[in-house]
Specification:
mainly alpha, 2 domains, 66% helix, 4% strand, binds zinc ion
């Protein structure tokens, strides 16, 4: 007599349960359950007694329920992580509005880009709109002086 079906269950199913346990121990739970479910439905097709078919069917349904709840939990966790990443990125942007990470300041008055309307950047120096206005006033007053003398 073959070991298959000798005691109501095929050796393939027994092997599958052992394999599933080993794979779960490795932490790969969902693939383990999928494999087991596949073997369960195959065994169900080959089973001869109604009691055995019913048992295999319920067992497969239970495995599927575990599988689905794990997948749902993982999807929820992923959503949580994604939300945390978005929040972290927003906070970083608020703390440091300058994307390049270089602290741009006016080379003349030392004001930061967020303290003035505009910073004009040259290759070696930066000037703010306020310093440009001040320079213009100085130029104008010097022109006037030149005109009067
Ligand atoms: Zn300035």
């Amino acid at each position: 007599m073959s070991t298959d079906d000798s005691d109501g269950f095929s050796s393939e199913l027994l092997d599958a349960v052992s394999r599933c346990t080993a794979t779960i121990a490795e932490g790969r739970i969902v693939p383990a359950l999928r494999d087991l479910r596949e073997v369960l439905s195959r065994s169900q097709g080959a089973a001869t007694s109604t009691e055995r078919i019913e048992l295999l069917s319920r067992f497969a349904a239970m495995v599927l329920a575990i599988e689905n709840s794990l997948v749902e939990a993982a999807a929820e966790r992923l959503k949580e992580i994604e939300a945390q990443v978005v929040e972290m990125e927003q906070r970083q942007r608020l703390e440091r509005p300058n994307e390049s990470g270089v602290d741009r300041v006016c080379s003349f008055c030392g004001k930061r880009h967020d303290e003035v309307v505009k910073l004009f950047e040259g290759p070696k120096a930066v000037i703010c709109n306020e310093c440009v206005a001040l320079c213009n006033e100085i130029l104008k007053s010097e022109e006037k002086k030149g005109n009067t003398t």
